[in-house]
Specification:
The longest helix has 20 residues, at about 280-300. Helix 5 runs parallel beside helix 7 and helix 11 (about 280-300) runs parallel beside helix 12. The protein is of the alpha/beta class. Strands 1, 2, 3, 6, 7, 8, 9, 10 and 11 form a nine-stranded parallel sheet that branches. Strands 4-5 form a two-stranded antiparallel sheet. The chain is built from twelve helices and eleven strands. The protein has one domain: Glycosidases (TIM Barrel, Alpha-Beta Barrel), CATH 3.20.20. The structure holds alpha-D-galactopyranose. Alpha-D-galactopyranose binds near residues 131, 184, 215 and 318.
């Protein structure tokens, strides 16, 4: 690839190009970030459990380092600091040995929001305020729960009020940056309806919500029509859109349709063999999917402002750890745009050419 080519430069007229980075890898990725990216997102370092592991005990050293590098790079941060059912200390939900009241939880969210905004606002262009609060599975009257919301600890203690509280606090402390709700499986029609209801409810309550973050983790070949329908549906709510956690697992090239093969399924052995020894065609297919996805994103650049991959290069990805399919032996999944040596994969050249040709 010619040395002057840059993904971020080629996409300047469309949207920002971002990557999730971690405290332990940001320095090794510095040259790639400098050349190809115009946004970064801290992978874990802004989550509640990282910043406030115990009530009132704030730990900023790792996240401060990421912001220091962002400033050196001259790029603003897409902050992923959400109220979320994961990676949050148990203290959030307790009041001594009793469950915490909604009011206490809202006070805690408010104090946390104030602390992160005061420290980081000047380098942040968008905040994920709440993550994954929509119900995942299809509602079943027999199992009960809410047809719209996830039965998280937050929801059990506060009902949907915690989402409103989080947005209200962030609007108060971060008047200038954009505020996002972020979720996954966002192109699944049933989940999409739940997300739309969640967002409309917030809007009806007068909350400022500027955007929706479409995570875009792919374990299956994307349904491009459903993707377009989803972009249009979310944009019709009056929101800006960010692609926030894009990656394409090798499994997307192996899974038949929208089903993850399990050990008891026919063809599982062969599937594992294919995953353990991916052919050059399967690896190239990941690139083809990126090319097609970016074609869709570019065609909606009037509503999409930022596209972030969940990681920078294949040497470090969550899919090698807790994102791995529990039914599988450990397989490398090659989900990102840069290879294990931080070199751009062939599809990066195609993405740049397509952008420059205005295709
Ligand atoms: C979710 C979260 C992210 C991250 C990824 C997997 O999508 O939003 O913060 O934890 O899972 O790494």
């Amino acid at each position: 690839m010619s040395p002057e080519l840059s993904l971020a430069k080629a996409y300047e007229k469309y949207f920002k190009i971002g990557a999730a980075v971690a405290f332990h890898n940001i320095d090794s990725y510095y040259p790639v970030l400098e050349k190809h990216f115009s946004s970064i997102t801290p992978e874990n370092e802004m989550k509640y459990s990282s910043i406030q592991p115990k009530e009132g005990v704030f730990t900023f050293d790792k996240i401060d380092r990421i912001f220091e590098v962002a400033r050196k790079l001259g790029i603003k941060v897409r902050a992923h600091a959400p109220v979320w059912h994961n990676q949050t200390g148990k203290w959030m939900y307790q009041d001594g040995d009793k469950p915490a009241s909604p009011e206490l939880i809202y006070e805690r969210i408010d104090a946390h929001s104030k602390a992160v905004c005061e420290r980081f606002n000047k380098d942040v262009y968008a905040w994920d305020v709440v993550n994954e609060a929509a119900r995942d599975e299809v509602f079943d009257v027999n199992t009960g729960g809410s047809p719209v919301y996830r039965e998280s600890d937050y929801f059990k203690l506060c009902g949907e009020g915690f989402i409103e509280a989080a947005f209200k606090s962030m609007a108060k402390y971060s008047p200038d940056a954009q505020l996002f709700y972020n979720d996954y499986n966002e192109c699944d029609p049933a989940k999409r309806e739940r997300i739309v209801t969640l967002i409309r409810t917030l809007q009806d309550k007068g909350c400022r919500i500027d955007g929706f973050g479409m995570q875009q983790h792919y374990f299956f070949e994307p349904d491009y029509d459903e993707l377009k329908r989803s972009i249009e549906t979310y944009a019709a709510l009056g929101l800006r859109l960010h692609i926030t956690e894009l990656d394409i697992s090798l499994m997307a090239t192996l899974n038949p349709g929208e089903k993850r093969l399990k050990p008891e399924d026919e063809g599982f052995k062969q599937y594992i063999q294919q995953a353990l020894h991916p052919t050059p065609e399967k690896l190239a297919k990941i690139g083809d999917i990126y090319v097609k996805l970016f074609e869709v994103y570019r065609s909606y650049s009037d509503v999409i402002d930022s596209v972030t991959t969940w990681g920078v290069a294949d040497d470090y990805t969550w899919l090698d750890f807790f994102g791995a399919d529990p039914n599988m032996p450990k397989v490398k999944q090659y989900p990102l745009l840069f290879d294990e040596n931080h070199e751009p994969k062939p599809c990066v050249v195609r993405l740049i050419e397509d952008a420059e040709a205005g295709r």
